[in-house]
Amino acid sequence: MKRDGFISYSHKRDIELAQALQRGLHQLARPWTRRPVLSVFRDTTSLSANHDLWSSILKELEQTRYFIYLASPEAAQSRWVRKEIQFWLDNRPLDRFLIAVSSGKVVWDQEAGDFDWERTDALPDLLRGQFTTEPLWVDLTRIREGSKYSLRQAEFRDAVGTLAAPLHGVGKDALDSEDIRQHRLSARLRRGAISGLVVLLVTALAAGGLALQQRNEALNRARTSASQALAARALETLDADPRKAAQFALYAEKVKPTADSAQALAATVAANSHVERHLKPGSDKVSAFIGSRSRPPAQVAISRDGGILAYYAASGSDRVHIYDIRAGRQLKTLPARYNGAVGGRLELSSDGAVLAVEGVQHLVEVWDVRKARLLRSRTMGNPEDLSNVETNLRAMALSSDGRRLATAQATSGTRELHISILDTVTGQVVHEDSTGSEGVHIGLAFVKDSHRLLALDALEGSTRVHDPLRGTWSTARKLDGYPAKPRDVDTEVSSGAEQAALVFPDGRTQLWDLVTGRRIASLATDGPDIMTLPDPEVRLLAGARGGTVTMYDRKLGQDRVLGAFSFPVQNLAVSGDGRWVAAGSDDGAISLFSTDARRAGAVLPNTDGLKAGALSSDGRVALRILRRQPVDVWTVGKGEGGLKRVVRLPTVFNDERPDIGVTVTSDGARLASLERGELRMWDTRTGRMIGDPVVYRPMLGSRFGSQLFFLADDVHLVGVWEEGVLIVDSRTGKVRQQLYRKADATQLVVSGDREHLVLLDTSADEVSVWRSAGEARLEKVRTVGVDGEADDVSLSHSGKKAAVLAGDGRISFIDTPSGRITDGAVLSQSGRGSVVLSRDGRIAARAFSSRDDVGVRFWDTGGGDALGTWPLRLGATGAEKGPRADPLLGEEDVQIAPSPDGGFLTLGIDGSLVRRTLDPDVWRRDLCSLAPDPLPKAEYERYLGDLSVGRPCPA
C-alpha cells in the first residue's frame, strides 16, 4: 500500500500530538462521501504486531512519499527515530522531508546555510550539513502546550494545512478553499437529507438486517485492530516494564483473541517468568516529572529466612506494607513514621518478626511485624550535636534476633561518624562513640547469629569489629590492595559480615571478603549501579543497572535477568538463600522476584540423576544410552512428579546406531520395550521383566527406528515392525490389527489422549489420520497429501491438529477433521526435534539452539504466523554441565516433547527437566495474578475508547 506520509516521533512525549496530526491530515479537504484522500503512516495505528518491527517499518518507509519528523529533544535522541531518518537520508530526496516542532528549538542560520547547532536541540545531528536551503517546518509548541488539536482551531488548522499542502500537491490557500467548499457541500447535503428521512424510513427498516450485519463486521474489524495495537504496545513495552506489558497483552486477548494477542501473552509470560508479584505499580504523577530531583523514594527489605518482605513508596500510602512471601498474601500495614523525604531505611530480623524503620531527624521505630505493634521509638544520637538532622542516617543494621539496632550518623562540625547501638528490648543505648573516620560512607552489619557489630569504612578501606561484652572496638584492619581515597562509594555489607559489595563512581564494582581482607572479584565497567548480598555461601548476588534487575555470580559475571522497570531501580533486597529479590524504582513501582522461573516453567525433580538423556516423542519416558553400558529408563511423573529411574534394560550398544522403543502405561505401572524386534514387558515398581519376550521380525534400516506406544486401554500396543504398523495385545503378543503395510519409511505418532494417531509415509509425502473405533481397533479418518519432502509429523493431545515438517524447514498444519492445510513459516535449520502442539492445537512450539542462544519458537497453527520465542537456560536449574559421559543419544543442548498433562517438557543436557505451559488461557491467568488492575484511563481511551471492553481479570 502506497503512503503519502510517514510520521516519525518520540513515543515518550508525543503520542497524543502525533495521533492528532495524523487525524488532521486525513480529515483536511476530505470529501464527505469518500475515505481520506491521504494515507499517513503512524506506527501505533498503522502497524500490526510483528516479531520483526524494524522490517515492518522499513517496508512502510520504502513506499512513502513524504517524511514528517515531529521534532523534540526526546525524538532527536530516540534510537528508532534516528534509524528512520538515516534511511530517508540514504534513500529519499530531502525536499520531501518535513519538520513539525513539538518542543525544543529549531534555528536556521542563513549565513552558514545550515541549522544553528549551538541553539538547535530538537533535531538529531544526523541532519548536520544535509540541507542547503531552509526546509519546510512548522512550530507546534504552543499548540501542544494548549492541547488544541481540532481543525476548528485556527492555529492547528494552519499548521496541518502547511504540512498537508505538499502531500496534496497544491498550495495551502487552494487546499484551505477546497476544505471550506467540502464543508459547505456537506452542510447542504445534510439539510437535503433531513427532508428525505421520511421517504427513507421504510427503506431503512428493510435494510436494517444488512446494516446490522455490516455493523457487526465493522465492530469485528475494530476489535481486531485494537487487539493488534495493544499487542504491539505490549511487545514495545516488554523490556522496560514487563508489568505494563502484561496489562496490554491481557487487554489484547480480552478484546479479541488473535495470533498477535497470543504472541503478546507468550512474550509477557516469558518476561515475567521470574516475577512472584508486582506489589505496587509506578505512579503516573511521578512519571510526568522525569529527572525531577524530588523523586519519591521506594524502600524494600526481606528477612534473611525469605519469609517476610517489608516495603513502602512515598508516592503511595503513608504506611509500611508487609507481605508474607511463603503464604503469598499481604499482612497488616504499619503506620510507621518513615523518612519519605530521603528514603529512610528498613531492616528486618532474620525471621521477619522485628522491623526497624528510619524516620525523620534520626528517629528509629522498632515494630512487632505479626502483631503490627510498635515496640520502641528512639532518636539515635543527640540531635543537637548532629549535622543535617533532616537527612537520613548514614547506615543502619539490625541483629539477626532483632535485639540490637546499630546506626551511624554524621557528627556536627566534623566529618566524623557517630555510631549508636540500641537494645530494642529495654530501649537503652548500650554503646555510643565517634569512629574518628573522616568519611561518611560506612557499612554496618551484625556478625551472623551474634551481637558483634562490624563497621566497614568504604573511604579508608578498613574494618573494625565491636565486642558487646567488652564494649570496645578492634583495631582497624586494612583491606589488601584497596583503592586510595575513593569518593561516593555505594556500600552493601552482608548480614553475616563476611563480605561486602562496593560500587565506585567510576563504574567499578568489587566484592570483598571482610574476614581475610582480600578482594574476591572485580568488574571494571558496565557493572551494576547497586548490589545486595545474600549469605556468603550462596553462589549468586543481586544487582541493578538502570531499570534492570540482574543476578550475578560470585565472579560478577551476569547470570540471568530477573525483570525490569520503566525507571531506574532505587533499592534492592535479597533473602539469605538468594531465592527472593525485591526492588523498588524511581517512580515507586515495587516488585518481588524469584530466582526460580515461576511462570515460564516448573523445574521437576531429578533425584536419580539423569544426564545426557533423550525424551520419548510422547514425553512419558526418558532414556540414557551410553556406549558399552546397559540402557537405563526413567519415567516422567504427572503434576509435580519428576524423573524416576525404573528399569535397566539388558541391551548394550557399542558403536551402532541405537534402535529402541519404550512406552509406559498411563499409571506408570508397566513398561514395554521394543529392541531389535523383541517386545518385552516390565514391572516399573520392581524393575523386573514380566513373562518372556515376544519376537517379531525387526524393522531394519528406518531412520525412525523402533516406535512403540500404548493405546488408551493400557493393554494394547501400536508399533512398527517389518510386517508394518501393527496393534498387538501386550498380554499375549498376538496381532489384533494391521494398519499399514509400509514400515521402513513410516513415522508413527500417537496423540496425548491415545485415541488418535497419524502415520507419515515419507516415500509418498502423505499423512494418514486414524482414530479409535472401540475394542482396541482403529479406523482411518483421511489421508492428506503434503507438498515437498515430509520429514517429521506431530499430533495435538486430542488429535485434531497435526504439524508436518518438511526437509527444507517449512512447517504445515493440518486440521485433521477437515483435512485443511495451513502453511506456516520456514523454520531455522537450528531447530531441534519435533514440533509440540498445545492441548487445544492453537499454538505450536519447537526447540532451537545456536552458538549463542537456546530457546523455543512458537507459531499460530490457524494462520501459520510466527509468535516469537522463549529463551531457555541450558540448565534450567543453573547447574554446571560438568564432565559428560559418552552418549549415543541426547547430544542436543535442549530437547522438547509434549507433556501428558498439557504443555511441553524440556530436557537439558544437565538433566534439568522443566514443564512449561503452552496454553493462552493459563498464560492469561498467570498474568492476571501479576497485573490484575485495569488499564489507566488515558491508555484505555487511546486504544479502546470506541469499544466496550470489560476488565480481563476478575476484580
Describe the structure.
The protein is an alpha+beta fold and 955 residues long. The protein has four domains: 3-206, Toll/interleukin-1 receptor homology (TIR) domain (Rossmann fold); 230-273 and 930-944, no CATH class; 275-594, YVTN repeat-like/Quinoprotein amine dehydrogenase (Methylamine Dehydrogenase, Chain H), CATH 2.130.10.10; 602-916, Methylamine Dehydrogenase, Chain H, CATH 2.130.10. Helices cover 19% and strands 35% of the residues. It is built from 15 helices and 64 strands. The strands form 16 sheets. It has a five-stranded parallel beta sheet with strand order 2-1-3-4-7, sandwiched between helices. Strands 21, 22, 23, 24 and 25 form a five-stranded antiparallel beta sheet that branches. 46% of the residues are buried. Mean pLDDT is 83; it is low at 287-294 and 874-885.
**Poorly predicted runs of 5 or more residues:** 287-294, 874-885
Amino- and carboxy-terminal Cα gap: 43 Å
Please tell me the overall pLDDT: 83
CATH topology of the largest domain: Methylamine Dehydrogenase, Chain H
Structural class category: alpha+beta
- Rounded Rg: 34 Å
Using the alpha-carbon principal axes, give the shape. flat
Name of the CATH class of the largest domain: Mainly Beta
How many individual helices? 15
The CATH homologous superfamily name of the largest domain equals YVTN repeat-like/Quinoprotein amine dehydrogenase
Provide the spatial order of strands within the biggest beta sheet: 2-1-3-4-7
Amount of helix: 10-25%
The assigned CATH architecture of the largest domain is 7 Propeller
Beta-strand level of the residues, as a percent range? Answer: 35-45%
| Beta-strand segment tally | 64
Note the main sheet: 5 strands, parallel
Organism: Streptomyces tsukubensis (strain DSM 42081 / NBRC 108919 / NRRL 18488 / 9993)
InterPro entries: Host-pathogen_enzymatic-act, TIR_dom, Toll_tir_struct_dom_sf, WD40/YVTN_repeat-like_dom_sf, WD40_rpt
Protein name: TIR domain-containing protein
Pfam family, one: TIR_2
